[in-house]
Design brief:
9% helix; mainly beta; 4-stranded antiparallel beta sheet; 2 domains; Jelly Rolls
Length: 195
């Protein structure tokens, strides 16, 4: 199809040819050649189509056009931006310390329920045996207990649960330490579930 309309060409190969042709009637500025009223071959491209009003848009709302969806951007905290709740778990096995880093979220506030647990294996003789767990949240002491170990020939442990709210852009660093005497460390676990 031939078209006699003003045309701006950005392809450098076409520009070189057009610059040569522009000396006989058109003009050019920098790398963009503007041809005025010259007949040039132009491919026919299908016109872009917008969704019909009866079809759902990108937000999944029926009856709204694409332009409506762009005009009504979801705001922070709206159901249109709902995300799956986060779950963070660290199982340190029989290590003496566990570290859980929850990165910052720059778009929303979050609230976590955090569960910390330690398990020890008790021997047959528990005379003077004890175990201790310390929980640090962002470097501050959150909780600490030392108790005498019970259940000879079985398992014993400590667990602590708490909730923590994180502001927009705030990260959380959890450190769980355990110490024991007369018993053997079995498992150290931190779980953080977003609510």
């Amino acid at each position: 199809m031939w078209r006699a309309l003003p045309l701006i060409c950005y392809d450098w190969r076409r520009n070189m040819r057009k610059r040569r042709a522009s000396l006989s009637g058109g003009y050019h500025r920098s790398s963009v050649t503007v041809l005025l009223q010259k007949a040039l071959p132009c491919p026919t491209l299908p016109a872009p189509t917008l969704p019909k009003r009866s079809t759902p848009n990108s937000l999944g709302l029926p009856g709204a056009s694409r332009a409506d969806a762009v005009a009504r951007k979801p705001v922070v905290g709206s159901p249109a931006l709902s995300v799956t709740p986060e779950r963070w778990v660290v199982d340190a096995g029989d290590a003496a310390q566990a570290l859980l880093l929850i990165p910052a979220d720059l778009h929303r506030e979050r609230r976590f329920e955090i569960a910390c647990a330690m398990t020890v294996r008790c021997g047959d003789d528990l005379d003077g045996a004890w175990h201790e767990m310390t929980v640090l949240a962002n470097g501050a002491l959150q909780w600490q207990r030392r108790i005498a170990s019970h259940n000879p020939g079985s398992f014993d442990g400590l667990d602590y649960r708490f909730a923590r709210s994180l502001a927009v852009g705030e990260a959380l660093r959890l450190v769980l330490r355990c110490a024991c005497r007369g018993v053997q460390r079995q498992r150290l676990l931190i779980e953080a579930d977003e609510v």
